[in-house]
Amino acid sequence: MTSEYWITGHKSGLGKFLLSSLKPSRAFDPRKNVVDLNKETLSNITLINCGFKRINHNEEVNLVSFDANVSNQLKLSKIPFKRSIICSSIDVYPNDNKMNIESREIKNKDITSIYAYQKLLVENFFLNNQSNSTVMRLPMLIGRECKDNTVIKLLKGEDLRLCENSTINVVEYNHILNFIKCVEHINLNGVYNIVASQNAVLGDIANILNIKPSFGKYLYMTPSISNKKLDNYFSDLNRSTADIIKNFAVNASF
Fold this sequence. Notes:
By secondary structure, the chain is α/β, with parallel strands linked by helices. It has 8 helices and 10 strands. Helix 3 links the parallel strand 3 (45-49) and strand 4. Helix 3 packs parallel to helix 4 (114-129).
């Protein structure tokens, strides 16, 4: 039986894209809609959890917002959906010389930001409370409805915050959409790195695209990440970050 998709974080970005691309689907705000739930309907619902209040590096940590976000995610993880698909981040990985695979143990001392700590908490809420949970650890995203991140600003010719030696890993919204369909078709549970096969240096990407941006001063180094766990199921990501951005740039219009 085909799932109905309930999508959080639907007002922008990936959530908005998935809401328009997956059928049947509906916007779901767990802060408002929990009263509408009943166990009969939940047996056919796949939750796609894109909603998350991010605390950026340059923002003051608001413990009230932090607690509310974590509490809401914990409550959401206890709702017995048919399946839950959770958007997490590669930022949870330590940035060392090791290749990061999904089974790597991540300890508190390895976590470098409150954002990564929140993401790991949410992952564990769902993995511990629901047997049919799939965690997508995602890099930088590009696609229709995408917010202005580093790649989008580069293509628009806008000033960048990152310096040219920064490294990035990028996938398209369509890759995530296809992975979600794969999850439903062959019942993939657990944690998956939805990443390009290779990272790229930001300055190299600018040279490939023949763009001369105004780089910033912030150095961001993407961890080394493996997507080999997907080899037998999902071949869309057998491409480098550079190839994915070049393909996107051909069809992008701003």
